[in-house]
Design goal:
alpha/beta; 18 helices
């Protein structure tokens, strides 16, 4: 079978690469063409465009790059038509993917959506578009299945969360070796800084994160560099020689960390699955924030709190994301009592996510639905 897959960021690249690996097990003749990243490319097939070339976030940033986005949509439609896949697989990235779906389904292509757009958080009207143009939806969060089926009478497949596989299947890191390889102090506990993967969010997050370094001299701070960005971009924010930078090894870094400051997004869930106490951070442009505040209907922004339906981790949003508050909240997660409670909540969180095998379950369902 021929599979055409579209993702728009690093997390999508990860989940798509594992899905491709699983598809090759159920379909030995699987062929791939995709808009993705390095991890997908490593699985074989043909890459049309890397997600680094399409990385825009926030309402203002998207509008400023609207011309480029429209050209990419046109190019994608033409490429799909030329390739003529047996299955068209969308992974998250709703602004782009739903536009493609509106064209693809009427054109006769079988449409599969793995990892639902966050229609449960904002712009719920998109559910009608999904019901009309998506043949099969595979969701990774239990409350999202309830949202679709109970509220909108649209049957979906709950397959579990692929991060459980990605984390549990990885090779374990020897902490002492990791510290020595990266020039880290062999004794001081590590506080990981995860400022996001896009330039806009790194600009907003990293300076505030670094502003508290001198208040925690018993610890060492390490920036987790995103695979989509070069060190030259990060170094403009680093004004302290004690801060370390490690690129494209976020999982290894979390594996040896004592605590973390994490930009809201998939990374909050990854950090929780590594059982690392964290403070969740978010800060956008004021205009984007004001718009988001009016259309997002959730009590929380982090996946950890959303899944647990309570405040497990502290969220510092917009004006709360400042030096004073960040220092206070980091001090709290360094205390034994707070850490014990977080560990207990993290274990409950993992149970709710449905265990291992998300990629394999999804691959099997996709193959069965086109065979």
């Amino acid at each position: 079978m021929k599979y055409y897959i579209i993702v728009g960021e690093a997390s999508g690249d990860l989940h798509a690469s594992n899905l491709m690996k699983a598809l090759k097990k159920v379909d030995v003749e699987a062929e791939f063409r995709f808009w993705g990243g390095d991890l997908m490319e490593a699985q074989g097939g043909t890459q049309v465009m890397h997600y680094k070339e399409r990385s825009f976030m926030g309402f203002i940033e998207v509008i400023m790059n609207l011309g480029t986005a429209l050209k990419n949509i046109k190019r994608c439609k033409e490429d799909i038509a030329q390739y003529n896949p047996d299955a068209l697989i969308f992974i998250d990235y709703s602004g782009f993917n739903l536009r493609i779906a509106k064209w693809a389904k009427p054109a006769g292509y079988k449409t599969h959506y793995y990892i639902s757009p966050q229609v449960w958080a904002s712009r719920e009207g998109r559910v009608e578009t999904i019901k009309q143009y998506i043949d099969h939806m595979y969701v990774i969060l239990p409350f999202v299945k309830d949202f679709y089926e109970e509220k909108h009478q649209f049957n979906v497949h709950f397959v579990g969360h692929p991060l459980i596989d990605a984390i549990s299947d990885r090779k374990q890191v020897d902490e002492l070796t990791f510290r020595r390889e990266h020039g880290l102090d062999e004794q001081r506990p590590i506080i990981a800084l995860l400022p996001g993967s896009r330039k806009q969010e790194i600009k907003k997050m990293l300076s505030v994160m670094l502003s508290i370094v001198d208040d925690f001299t018993d610890y060492q701070f390490v920036i987790a560099g995103a695979p989509s960005q070069e060190y030259d971009f990060y170094k403009q924010f680093i004004n302290n020689d004690s801060v370390h930078f490690i690129s494209n090894k976020t999982y290894d870094l979390l594996n040896v960390s004592f605590a973390a400051l994490v930009t809201s997004g998939t990374a909050t869930l990854e950090t929780a699955l590594f059982k690392i106490p964290q403070v969740v951070c978010y800060k956008g442009s004021n205009i984007s924030y004001q718009i988001a505040k009016r259309i997002i209907k959730l009590d929380y922004i982090s996946l950890v709190n959303l899944i647990m339906d309570k405040e497990v981790v502290t969220e510092l949003i917009q004006h709360e994301m400042n030096t004073k508050r960040l220092k206070e909240e980091l001090q709290k997660i360094l205390t034994e009592d707070r850490r014990i409670q977080l560990f207990l909540d993290y274990y409950d969180l993992e149970k709710k996510l449905g265990g291992k095998g998300a990629s394999e379950k999804t691959a099997k369902l996709i193959f069965e639905n086109i065979s």
